[in-house]
Amino acid sequence: MARYVKISCLSAPQLRVDPQTDLEETVERMIRYWETQLEQVLPDQPDLIVLPECCDRPESSGYPLERRTAYYRHRGDRIRDYFAGVAASHSCYIAYSAIRELPDGSFRNSTQLLDRQGNVAGVYNKNHLVESERTKADMLYGKDASVFQTDFGTVACAICFDLNFDRLREQYVRQRPDLILFSSAYHGGLMQQYWAYSCRAHFAGSVYTHAPSSILSPVGEIIATSTNYYHYVTSTVNLDCAVIHIDYNGAHFRRMKNKYGDKIRIHDPGLLGSVLLSSETDEFTVNELIREFGLEQLDDYWQRALEHRCASGNLEE
């Protein structure tokens, strides 16, 4: 059963603020800045907006760490609450990435997922900080990596440096999210594609303007991307999909298309040996389609191949 979700990713640069500016004025300017940025995507009525890492931090090159800490404490949750109001008034989810202070006085680099009512649906704390975030900025490493439930599917979060670490990625491989939300100051290059494919998940990356923000499919293809002219991207994806290897399954594809036509989509990205199968109708889900035609999903195929390799008599002495 098709599960369409419209996603917007913003590549807005950090706002440059004179460190001598009054902290209250800085907070107010930051809110006005994000009002302007959001005006670029809200007319498309997205279901989800993904913001870049530390989105409400003043541009750091001219803003000393001590002043930044004072700003975070003065700001509190007010900018989060501003985004929560936007989420509620536009009935969308927002992945708000920012530094936040905990009651014990320590800090986290977090993504807070705000739901369509403006409530916090989940909080992810960056698991893999850059060392200076701990040694200079008094942040602590996050230890949990939960998958959050939304009305369109399950989502996982990663922040910037996280993308380099297999430990976190493998946790998500096991949890099988529908969508990975990536808020970042760096792009990650081929790692975005690798995460999408290895997690069998769509991937929505919001990165500052020095690199594009992109939406990727579970076979690692870029579906849509921001450009050097327009620093935002909006696209609709279908989360009712599965990655299927061509081996042993390909013989069924023609029969499937002959029966269901454009109610299903079998997309071959080329070179990979796998296709992305999706249900484009409300009549049946992709899992029901898989069962009807006796298809084998990619991870099941890999597991069967490993077991066959290790079966008695199949491995060289």
From TrEMBL:
InterPro entries given in the database record: Aliph_Amidase/BUP (IPR050345), C-N_Hydrolase (IPR003010), C-N_Hydrolase_sf (IPR036526)
UniProt KW Hydrolase keyword: yes
Any single Pfam family the record assigns to this protein: CN_hydrolase
Residue span(s) of domain CN hydrolase: 5-239
Recorded GO MF terms: hydrolase activity
Protein keywords: Hydrolase
Stated name of the protein: Carbon-nitrogen hydrolase family protein
PROSITE patterns to which the protein is assigned, alphabetical: CN_HYDROLASE (PS50263)
Keyword Hydrolase found: yes
Domain of life: Bacteria
